Amino acid sequence: MGGFFKRTGNGRRDFGKANLIIFLFALAHALLCYLLHDTSVGDGLFLTILTIAMVFCLIRFYGSPLDVFLGLAFLSCFAGFYFGTSVGDYLHKTFPTLGVFNNMIVTFATTEILGLATVLVVARKNR
After folding, report:
1. Does residue 6 sit within a domain?
2. Measured between alpha carbons, how far is residue 96 from residues 10, 37, 57, 108 in Å?
3. Is 1 among the domain residues?
4. Is residue 5 part of a domain?
């Protein structure tokens, strides 16, 4: 299975693999959000760690240098927090009965958007 997450040189195939990586991280984010939503620890630190891990995996997949990773990880954490809290507040006002599922939906969508933005930046740089 180790060969699955290696680049093939085929742009479409590599983009599909990158999307699978993003999807798996988005599922992990949503699951973590569900499991930790009512704990005293909270989910903020763990979601940040998962976001940094996703950016790292995508950077390594495309073979980008460390300075690109540091910049994208930093931006992803701030953008994810801002986007997640803004959209989360809006959804809680719009659909107050969904409860934690609002958080899960926003977390999943935010992770997908950040992952795709990372791929678009890194894939363009490594053409």
Report:
1. no
2. 45, 16, 35, 18
3. no
4. no
Residue 1 has pLDDT above 50, yes or no: no
pLDDT at 29: 96
CA torsion through residues 33, 75, 110, 61, sign:
negative
Q: Is residue 4 part of a domain?
A: no
d(CA 50, CA 123): 21
Instruction: Please give the residue range of the domain that contains residue 35.
Output: 11-125
pLDDT tens per residue, range 15-56? 999 999 999 999 999 999 999 988 888 888 899 899 999 999
Q: Euclidean distance between the first and final Cα of the chain, in Å?
A: 25
Q: Quote the number of domains for the chain.
A: 1
Q: Show the tokens assigned to 32.
A: 């973590």
pTM of the entire predicted model: 0.88
- Are 93 and 51 in contact by the 8 Å Cβ rule? The answer is no
**Cα distance between residue 112 and residue 125, in whole Å:** 20
